[in-house]
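Lab channel / #folding
Pinned by the channel admin:
"Please post every new chain as: sequence first, then the structure tokens as a reply. Keep commentary short and put observations after the output so the thread stays searchable."

First post following the new format, from NK:
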Amino acid sequence: MDEGNYKRNRWFFGLGTIGRDMQYSMVSMYLMFYLTDILQVPTKTMWYVTGVMIFTRVFDAFNDPFMGVIVDNTRSRWGKFKPWILIGALLTAVFQVLMFTDFKLEGFAFVFVFLIIYLLWEISFTANDIAYWSMLPTLSKDQKQRESIGAIARICANIGLFTMVVGITPVSKMLGELTGSMQKGYFYLAIIVVLIMIFFQLFTLFGVKEDRSYNNKESHTSFRELTAIIGKNDQLLWTVVAMCLFMIGYMTTTSFGQYYFKYVFGDEDMYSIFALILGISQIASLAIFPAVSKHVKRAQLYLYATILVVLGYIVFFFAPNTSMLFIGIAGMLLFVGQAAIQLIMLMFIADSVEYGEWKLKKRNDSVTLSLQPFINKLGSAISTGIVGATVILSGMKGSAGPQDVTEQGLLLFKFAMLVLPMIFIMISFIVYKKKYRIDEVFYQQIIQELESRRN
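Reply from TO:
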């Protein structure tokens, strides 16, 4: 890739995900809070809604590879990625607004309408998400350039994520006061978020230039080939296992954040301050990653990052619930480490594209990268189940504040938020350590052999 295209792609690809991650975070992290504390859905109905969310996310996760086949087989004058990025963005915007609309329904009618809207939102976001991340391997085959592009994309994703995390409480309250209802506050916030998402997607649609040479050379991929493409790429499979375990832990912890500050810390407004600390920590970690990776191998970086995460969980568990000092330190340790791990694992999946081409004699960017949203959705589904069950069983559902939560409820909450996720993340590292073998030397051998075959 020439230097001009590399520099342009590095920024325009990353900018495209700022609004996407604001949008996704509003649903993945705050939809549950919106249902329990804003709409105040009855407990019995919430059990059904929680089941619907788990089922829908699991279904959509397993649907991702099929969407990857569709993207891989797309042939158009705009390439195979951009049409689906646009279609997915527009449809997702519509269903996001509907998701935060109060239709004044109850019981089964509420659950049924919620299921339809939520399922359509998931499918629409899948089309956009798979097409977006599938572009990454086509932007550069150089590992360091790929890490740099990926780091900028993850920084932009975290800007979107933490803009939502920091802003959702004060902005929703402000909009709620202006409209006279917190439900309307969330509704208008959803409209603002999807407009921001569409704006930033334009940078990717019109600014990114991917390598389309493989688009014409690749043969058509059938759905029957899907199992072989994924199943025979052993390095992709082990990466998926490790990353699923990691994301279950990561998303469980982050999804509990607003509940923690409302029902444990006792000051919901401090959640925005905590989120700002986490956002700065993650962005700083991602910003220095390309420079550090020039001197430290990925395997060592992964080890150091995992140690930071485990230390963060330990500090957080024993931190007093009345002081932000130790909670802030724990958050910095957690999210500096987690940011590095997420980027490393994204690179593992991207490198699996060339590994799959080298081993199976066929390149399938979108099918391979479809495992990225699959991982996020499966992690989100399981974490949603953990969060929903914990909030109900701990007694937080229906409580006014910390004074209504028992010692047993508090212990259950802290175990689900901190101990269980730490166990998942430690097992994730063990899986990687024992099974993943595409290091820097092996990857260069793969690239050289692929170039030799083409020539």
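NK: The chain has one domain: 3-205+225-454.
TO: also worth noting, Residues 172 and 185 are 5 Å apart (CA to CA).
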